[in-house]
Amino acid sequence: MSRATADRATLWLRPRRWVGSWLLCGAAVLQTLALGGCASAATEPEAASAAMRDESSRYIVLAVDNPLSSPGGRAGASLGSYGAAPRYVLGSRAAATLAALAREHGLRETAGWPIVSLGWHCVVFELPAGAERGQVLAALQADPRVRLAQPLQEFDTQGATGPGAPPPPALPPSTSPTNSPGTPAATPTSPGAPTERVPYNDPYVDLQRSFLDMGAAQAHRISTGAGVRIAVVDTGAALNHPDLRGRILATRDLVGEPAARFEGDKHGTEVAGVIAAVGNNGEGIVGIAPQAGLEVFKACWGRHATGGAESPARCNSFTLAKALAGVLESNARIVNLSLGGPSDPLLEKLLGELLRQGRVIIGALPPDGRRGGFPTGVEGVLAVGVAGELQSPADASVIAAPGRDVLTLQPGTGYDYASGSSIAAAHVSAVAALLLAADPRLDRLALSTLLQGASQGRVLDAGAALRTLSTRLATSRRS
Questions:
Q1: Where is the composition biased (Pro residues) (predicted)?
Q2: What CATH fold (topology level) applies to the domain 205-478?
């Protein structure tokens, strides 16, 4: 990525206040100021977003039909797509419906955004003081004008943190690399993998047990993920990390935090490193799909440590819905969701639309290993658990991947170990990219079959998955 391109990428991480103000004020004009004008939702977007994060129980999410909407700037894009005036239009019918609902129930709009592919306009409403959320939702859900009404819910990234998590292995200082440039990587240990060594000059590659155990180096003889885009819906990520140069192709901050905080986010950096850390650059580690492109949608924010434990990053229905609406308008074939929480009607509707478009959605199992809630409870989502820790290893629908003490990237220029099903999901997203790069015609079901066949309760074998695909392609060409 050139310096100029990197500067533009950083620029577009900054909150675009005028975009939000235009949308909300435009809605207010159409609503004849029935919602109290643009008020704090337009002039204080950071304050409104912070209030939703701190007191989610005071808010609900509501959607109405917006038949007069027209596609505008892509909801999740960055760089140049927000350079022109927004063309999204909140139709008068939708505006009037929202105004009436707000007036009848004493609601105050704090944010609004389109889901163009569904023909909806979604709004986050703050409840009036003393209102019981369940009662308000029941009334709205029974209203024929309302397409969807639900609580504003919370979700967490799926890491392995807290006092019970075992300490990771010690990492040698970067000034004393374990592999000098030009030294071959260790032989992969995956079952049936060839014994030839594959050269990588990345100094920490011998410490990447997951890379070796999955036979990734052998898989790279067939595919490195080139040309495949993966949407990472997570926290922000370290755009300027030396092992991510050129790998992050687009970004969007749906939380509205300062750009520096996006760069300093840990969880998204760890996930991005597992997937696409640059190979053979003499720096750090190698990603499982080192030539895949990433689109980072920041929908989660970091939280302060409590009781000596590192808290997982948190997201909510609002930030995740905006991110998924953005993914719907993106070119990403794969969607990595290293997070989870309760069932959520709006988010499940958006996942259904992504699946209908043929996207491959990878979700991290919750700590209890059960396929419930969002996203792994949604039919069609590929659920991923940590190899060796699955509660039900006989469940062939769950893909087992490395997720314990995996060496990956840290904000700035650092490297460290990370654990959890978040990391396991990142491995599977990367292997999916290898397969799609080798055969772009693969659909979701064929890809799922290859991934599950190369896992079968053990650690996912990337080399075996690519060899199986290569054999099928060769057979198809001969027939």
A1: 164-175
A2: Rossmann fold (3.40.50)
